[in-house]
Structures are given as structure tokens and as C-alpha cells.
Amino acid sequence: MPFNKGDFLLVDYVAKVKDEDRILETTIAEEAKKAGIYDENKAYEPKLIILGEGWLLKSVEDEILNMDIGEEKVIELPPEKAFGERDPSKVRVIPARELTRRRIRPVLGAQIEINGRIGLVRSVGSGRVVVDFNHPLAGRTLIYKVKVVKKLESLEERIRALIHTRLPSIEAGKFKIEIKDGDVTIWVPEEALNLDGLQIFKRALAMDVRRYIEDISLLRFIEEFKVREETKEPQQEQQ
Fold this sequence. Notes:
By secondary structure, the chain is of the alpha+beta class. The chain has helices at residues 29-35, 58-64, 96-101, 155-166, 198-212, and strands at residues 8-17, 22-26, 47-50, 72-77, 91-95, 111-114, 117-125, 128-132, 142-152, 176-180, 183-188, 218-223. It has three domains: 1-85 and 137-152, Chitinase A, domain 3, CATH 3.10.50.40; 88-132, Thrombin, subunit H; 154-228, Alpha-Beta Plaits, CATH 3.30.70. Helix 4 crosses helix 5. The termini are far apart. The model has no long low-confidence stretch (mean pLDDT 93).
């Protein structure tokens, strides 16, 4: 059954550059290990996407719209459906002294930011630096192998998925969630209470819920600190 924009899906995928057969990104640990890009600090698991929100390339999401749960598909994206063709006008020659003035040290192959634009240093020499502001994958054909693992139907499933996306270091199942008449109460587990950025996480989650889930009008967080272990009075033995 085709999906709709706004649906919450869990997907596995492998993204490659076609002409190099080089894996750019994957949600699958074994694929990452085979490609030599495995990161032990990264969680390899199906990725949450919300269709129509650009969590994957639009051309990939458009194909997913017509897939079924459990279906696997290979999608080829020419440059115009991926990151566009290379634009020679985006390759600029910048005086080295201009970069020095901006406290930027140009190094061959490094990414630098100028006026909010990210560019790749292509060459350095003779007081000039060639910076390429094209996307690194511009002009490349990409191959995505995608599998739709699951559609998240219930409010609780969708909220937990958003929690996990925002705070992957804490198991989402440890957050107790209660939903009643459009009000959602979330109990924050004790192990998350001292995390840096907890308040930022809560505000970001509230914004996610406001944007992606229409059926919720109020989001409430409860933080409980255990200050003393409960002890039971020893029972006296009966004579």
C-alpha cells in the first residue's frame, strides 16, 4: 500500500556513488564494515524519516511513497535528481591574504566557510587559493538501496521515535509516556537528568511534535529525583 506525506517510516539504506562504487552512508553495520567506514560510536539501525520533510533526498522519498512495508528497491539518481550538475561559476580564486584576514588557514582538501558558504580548497599557491563551492557530490550519479522496515502508526511509537532521534544516547523505552485527550506527559528517566543540553532536547522535541504530529495539543515533561531509597520496617517474628 503506498504511503503518504507525513508518514513516519523506519528505513534501512545504502547510498553509493555509482562510478566509484563507494559507499557514502548506510544504516547497516555489516555494510559499513565491508566499506571500511564503520564508526563504533554510531548506532547502526533503521533510520526514522518523515515523508515529505526532506530527511532523505526528495527523489528518494518520492520513490518510497510508492513502496510497501518490507519492500527493497534500488534507486538510481542522476545528478539532476541528486545534488545537481557542477557549476564552474562556483569555483572561485581567492587571495590568500583575504583568507588570512578572516583567520582561515587554507589547506589543500580542507572545507572552509566564507560568508556562510562551505567550500572545498582545491589548490593553494602563489598567493592564491582555489575554492570550490559546488556540493562535493555535484555531477555524480548516486545509487540508493532502500528497504522500508516499518511504518509507525501509533502516537506513542511516533513520539518515541522522535525522542530517539533527538537523544539517541538514552534508550527511548526508558521514557514513560502517557497520552490522554491530546495531552502527552513524558517522564524523563533519571539517567537523562544530568545530561548536558537536556533543556535544549525538551524544547527541540516539543517543536518536533508541534511540526510533525497534529493530534497533540500539550506536551508535559516530568523530572523526578529519587532522594532516598525506600526501606521497609523489619517484621517482628511471632512468638
